[in-house]
Structure formats: C-alpha cells, structure tokens
Amino acid sequence: MIAVLGLAIGVVVGLFVQPSVPDAVVPYLPIAVVAAVDAVFGGVRAMLDGIFDDKVFVVSFLSNVVVAALIVFLGDQLGVGSQLSTGVVVVLGIRIFSNAAAIRRHVFRA
Amino acid sequence: MEEDKDQDKSSEQLPDEEVVEPAAAEESAVEPVTVPEAADVDDPSDEPSAGPAEPVQPAGSAQSTAPAEPPSDARRRLKAALWPPRLSRGQLVVALLLFSLGLALAIQVRSTNDHSQLRGARQEDLVRILDELDSRQQRLQQEKAQLEQSLTQLENSSNQAKEAQEQTRQKTAELGVLAGTVTATGPGIVLTVDDPQGQVKADMLLDTLQELRAAGAEAIQINDVRVVAGTYFTDSSVGGVQIDGRSVSQPFRFTVVGNPQDLTPALNIPGGVVRTLEKQQARATITEQQKVVVDALADPKTLQYAKPAAK
Lengths: 110, 311
What we know:
The complex is a heterodimer of chains A (110) and B (311).
Chain A: H1 2-17, H2 29-49, H3 54-78, H4 81-108
Chain B: H1 73-82, H2 89-114, H3 123-179, E1 184-194, H4 202-214, E2 219-222, E3 225-227, E4 233-235, E5 241-243, E6 246-248, E7 252-257, H5 260-268, H6 273-279, E8 283-294
Antiparallel strand pairs in B: 1-7, 1-8, 2-3, 2-7, 4-5, 5-6
C-alpha cells in the first residue's frame, strides 16, 4: 500500500513540480522507465506467487534500469542507438506482457 | 507459470548511474506470507490491469468473485499487501523506488508532450531536420534575391519614368519660351528706339528684329507684345505701327534675352540697325543687363490646317 502510494505521489510530483532533468540523462530516461515498469510487474507477480523479497526487488529494479541505460548508451556509441532501443523496448514489452498474464491468472484465474 | 520470474538476478552489484538510490536494502522483511483474515470480496487490484495481449481476457468478469468461492492465495496475498498498510523497511524502500519510477514516468510523459519532437529526436533525425532547414533557408534566400532584383528593376524603371517626365517638363518649358506662352528671363539687352518724328516704320522694326534673331536672340518682346514665330508688323493707316494687330506706341522698347556680347555688336555694326535708325532721326539706346525679364505672353493659336506629318 505504501508502495502504491509512493508511485502515485511520484507521478503527482512529476506532473506538478516539473523538475528539470539533466541533459546527460535525457536519452536514457524512456528506456529506464520501461525497464523499471518491467521490474514492477515482476515484483507484483512475485508477490502474488508468494515469493516476494524486497531486497531482490530493489536489486532487480536498479539493475534493470542500469542495464537498460547501458544498452542504450552502448548503442549510441556504436551508432545503432535507435535500433538497439527498439530491441530493448521489445524485449521488455514481452516480459511485461508475460508478467501481466501471470498476474491476471493469479487474480482472475483466467 | 510460463516464464521465469523477474527476481532471478538476485544479487548483482551493478554500479548504478541512472537512479541515484543507494537503497541497497539488507534483508529485513519476509512479508508476503501473512494472512490476516479471510475476506470475501477483494477488489480487483490496481496494479496488474495491463494485460490486453491474450484473447481470453474476461472483460466482463472483473467482479467475478462469487461469494461462495473462497478467495485464492494470490488474492489473499494481494489484499493483505494492499490494505493494512505496514510501515516496514522493505515497504519504504519499494515505495521510494516506485516514487522515482513515477517521477521519471511523469517527467518523460510531460517532456514528450511539451516540447516538439526535437526533444526526443535522435541525432540522425536532428541532422536530417537541420538539412531540411538548410535547404529551405537556401530556397528562401534565392527567392529573396529574386525579389530584390525585381525591386531594383522596378526602381530603375520608376527612375527612368521620372527622368523622362523631367525631360518632358523641361522640353515643355523650352518650347513654351519659344512659343511665347511662358515668361523668360536671363542675360540680355534692352534696346530703346526713340523716334519723336515718327519715321520708324514697320519694316525698320522688322529689320531690327531680324538682326536680333540673327545674333541669337532667344526671347523678344516689343513693349508689351511678345514676339513669336507668327508675329507680323503692319503700318497703321493712322500712323504708327501695329504688331500682331496691336498698336505699339513710342518709344519702342525691345527686351531681348540672349548673349549681350553678341547682340550689341550686331546692332552696332556699320550700316547696321543703329546707323539706319540714326539716319531716320531716331535714337537707339542699348543697355546690357545681366538679367532681363520677358514677361509678355502670346496667345497660342490653335492650328487649324497644319497637322504634324507622320514620320
């Protein structure tokens, strides 16, 4: 519950405060957000499975974000930034869908 | 179920550069096994509502919890995790992470909506946009050059028209001087013929006029009659002289615009006008002036028969 509140408060703060993002971070922000959403879905699924562990969640969250940013950074350095970003988004999207399907089976049994 | 969970990469120490959350939580909480009570109706949660991928999504069965059916473990866990808010350390850390996630999400959405597509555009897109802008600017420069050229042409033609107009005006003035319709001024002489005995006839005046014209006189008036191309001299039957049908009285006063150094010797040559006049007992006086004014005007005659011949 507190975690859900944290998410809501973050959205509200981001919408109304409009903090400025440093330019070095701007290219990685979308991919990082997608990776973090993937981690969140995985965490919810793990919680429904009864094996949620917050330490694991924290580590997976951070590592997801960092690895996604690293991939984008590497792609930019190699000149294939847009293609690699698309690939990362596709992979994370597949994971998000599968996690969402598992969550749905848990909750709705369907 | 069908894919390994997200929690597999358990403990890697990655150097985080993106999210500045040093919240490496030590193990503290084993929370998902608490089963506080067995409630009957649990709300469909707010988190996992993003699964439109499979065709078996029961859209109508969102409230499909029949009262006779005991809630499953997953639902109990979900409800337990949602409602009694426990202030554990793990919850706070996860809340912190989710806070940063929501923040980044909102920032990204807002920046994507706010700024134009330039903000999120990649380098090659920016280069392409820049190229397009460059070529567009080039086209606009060319158009500008063309417009400036046409502007210059128009100004030139306007200047030419103005110049032609000026020339026409000047020509009109010169022709007006010749035709006697405008006043004339300039250096010249004033010749006064005083003839107390009335010996000066029209032919004498005509000789004088011819002499003046031969010497380069440009505008002439006698007393108040302007001398033009059609001027004629007649002897009046009652004595005296008529010019253009108007009687002129003594003394005859020629006001002549022309070069005085030419006009005066032309009148004074031996056997010339002045000598002839003196033989007739008339007295001629010549005065050179730097500025004489010929202000008598002649009525322009409308040509009735003569037409300009076509070239």
